Amino acid sequence: MSTCGKHLFYRDRKEWNDITPVPQDDNGRHIVNIAYSEEFVDAHDYFRAVLLKNELSERTFSLTSEILLMNPANYTAWEYRRRIIKEISSDLNAELRFVGSLIEEYSKNYQEARSFGRLL
């Protein structure tokens, strides 16, 4: 089983066995290779897969939390999370706390989080 510290990769989680990860494909059009962490690659491969399936569920909601903690400027993750919240009737108070914590920690990206908060 692959773990880095206490992190459990999505590829090692039983509840994600039904999803085939979708690797990033730049078609060879990149100036430099970005050295993403293994956790980042794993989570984003699963994120791309559920986006393609348009899965709106508790597990994809949880996945967007991890994606946004890795990169709060990910507009696609914010939009997808908004759609998930509408579908699963998430706890809006908990969501506002999550958004608030991202604003505090990553004030540079407050615009995305603030816009998202207004949609709630």
Automatic annotation (TrEMBL):
GO molecular function terms noted in the UniProt entry: CAAX-protein geranylgeranyltransferase activity; protein farnesyltransferase activity
Record's keyword terms, sorted: Magnesium, Prenyltransferase, Repeat, Transferase
GO cellular component: CAAX-protein geranylgeranyltransferase complex; protein farnesyltransferase complex
Any Pfam family the entry gives: PPTA
Enzyme Commission numbers on file: 2.5.1.58, 2.5.1.59
Needed cofactors: Mg(2+)
Protein name: Protein farnesyltransferase/geranylgeranyltransferase type-1 subunit alpha
PANTHER family with a match to the protein in the record: PROTEIN FARNESYLTRANSFERASE ALPHA SUBUNIT/RAB GERANYLGERANYL TRANSFERASE ALPHA SUBUNIT, PROTEIN FARNESYLTRANSFERASE_GERANYLGERANYLTRANSFERASE TYPE-1 SUBUNIT ALPHA
Enzyme class: transferase
The organism's place on the tree of life at top rank: Eukaryota
Family from the record: Belongs to the protein prenyltransferase subunit alpha family.
